[in-house]
Amino acid sequence: MKRYINPLMGVLLVMMLAGCRKDLCYNHDEHAMTVKFNAVASWICEWEDCGVHDWSQEWNSSWSRQYDEFRPEPAEGIRAVVYSGDKVQESNIDSEGGRVHMPEGTNTILFYNNDTEYIVFDQGSSSATATATTRTRTRSGFMVMHEGERTITPPDMLYSEYIEEHYAEKTLEPVDVPVNMHPLTYSYLVRYRFKSGLQYVLRAQGALAGMAEKVYLHDGHTDAAAATILFDCEVDEIGCTAVIQSFGVPDFSVSDGYLTDQTDKRYTLNLKVQLKNGKEIDYEFDVTEEMKEQPRGGILHVTDIVVNEEDGQQGSGGFDPDVDDWGDVIDVPLPIN
After folding, report:
1. Helix (H) or strand (E) holding 306
2. Residue 158 is part of which domain span?
3. pLDDT tens per residue across span 22-43
4. For the chain, which terminal residue's Cβ has fewer other Cβ atoms within 10 angstroms, N or C?
């Protein structure tokens, strides 16, 4: 009997090996019945939204730069966070999309770009509580503008998408799911224009107080927490200019607008200039009405700033304009193993 069984077993084994193609054998998961969620990403690259002004239509050609110059680029990669009951699973995929690993059944999925530098994420145990903020930034000699507000660096460009409920089934072929990445940070073009004395200005810095400190990743709304954004300016022949990114204003929802009464809310814009003789001068501007009309990006324009001749021409006192002592300090905590 053994003489017949052993050769038969050998023939069957050869047939099995011949019928199993090498590419299938090395990719069992790809060709097996598994959950194959394939994210197909697209990017909404807007720099301002929800304002009273439609700046794309109202753009002033005398501003030398074009509206579309301020549009952000798509991010370099995406992180997908899958919430399955009390379990959380992460995947990193390309900017065009890719395979997102998840268990069979009902899942909630949160997407955001994973190429930020200053963003600080707090995912929590629930997609509804996941937030993003930015790092603390301090400036030597900075005078507090709004009591109790943390001073922060402008956040990086942040996008997100949220799928509240997706039922994942095991399939043989990938299931393509569109993922539209929406911006959560918006830009403000800040223009400081001088009436006189610009020739005395060496460098400039700015701050914008009253802005949202954090944003909720699942729907883009901000709560009441406010912070002061510190930023640098460029000095040119007509004044000082900055483009700063922000989560927008506090207590704002994309779908519902302002969530609380804004009567007593205020926003303050600061400009600090260092003159060529070493003297420093601070200016403050109430931009409350402009900000309330531009909750997520827009234009802040202040004019008629004056540096008087007495300030501009007084002795330098040994000031060396090549010594840069204006560097801000950004709090970047280091991991400790």
Report:
1. strand 298-306
2. 32-330
3. 444 445 666 789 999 999 999 9
4. C
